[in-house]
Each structure stands twice: as C-alpha cells, then as structure tokens.
UniProtKB/TrEMBL annotation:
InterPro entries: CTAG/Pcc1
Name of the protein in its database record: EKC/KEOPS complex subunit PCC1/LAGE3
Coiled coil (UniProt feature): none
Pfam families: Pcc1 (PF09341)
Residue segments, region Disordered: 98-118
Family (UniProt): Belongs to the CTAG/PCC1 family.
Gene3D superfamilies according to UniProt: Alpha-D-phosphohexomutase, C-terminal domain (3.30.310.50)
Length: 118
C-alpha cells in the first residue's frame, strides 16, 4: 500500500520590498489596481503583496530561490514602467483635450465668416 506523502511548503527565505513614490495617493492607488489584476503563476514558489502607504506603492516579494526573486522583481518593474507610461500618456492626452476645449470657439463667441464677393 503506497503511503501518501504531503510535501512541506518550501521556505521563502528570499525577500525584497520596493517603495515606489507617486505624486499623489490617487496615482499610487490607480497603479495598484492595474497591477493587482494578475494572479501569481506559482504562489507556492514566489509571491507579492501590494499596498499603498501615503503616496507610495509598496510591493513586498518573497521567493524560495534568489533567482526566482530576481525574475519576479524584473517582471514587476516592467509592469510598473508600463503602467506609469500609460498613466503619463493618458494624463498628457487629457490635459491637451482640456486645453483644446478652452481655446475652441463656442457658438456665442464664434464670428461668422463672410462669403467672398464676386
């Protein structure tokens, strides 16, 4: 009769915490929500905990191997950079649209164009 063996979880001896500063708490929360969508592929081997403290996004990582910790950190920083670029582009576009709206003539201020005389 085969004995059932339950494997002990591997200890996550490798840890790292990143604190990423944003201009506002709202920006930190927006990036947190964007990055919280993905589940960990192998949570028993590496995982992360995300939270916001003031205007900082705080990410705490744990892994069973240093190599896995490094890979997890690398992937996370790439996702943060993408989220930041997306936020910056969206903000720039919104600012441009608001500026365009301010300079766009309204019906009350528009001057009628005269037809050329022949």
């Amino acid at each position: 009769m085969a004995s059932q063996r339950t494997e002990e979880p591997m200890p996550m001896d490798h840890e790292c915490t990143l604190r990423i500063k944003y201009d506002t708490t709202e920006q930190a929360h927006m990036v947190l929500r964007a990055l919280s969508v993905d589940r960990e592929l192998a949570p028993e081997r590496a995982n992360k905990e995300l939270r916001v403290e003031g205007n900082f996004l705080v990410a705490h990582f744990k892994a069973v191997e240093f190599r896995l910790l490094r890979t997890t950190l690398s992937a996370f920083t790439e996702m943060v950079l993408l989220a930041n670029r997306t936020f910056d582009l969206a903000t720039d576009k919104l600012i441009q649209e608001l500026q365009d709206e301010e300079h766009r003539p309204t019906a009350a201020t528009a001057t009628p164009q005269q037809k050329p005389r022949m």
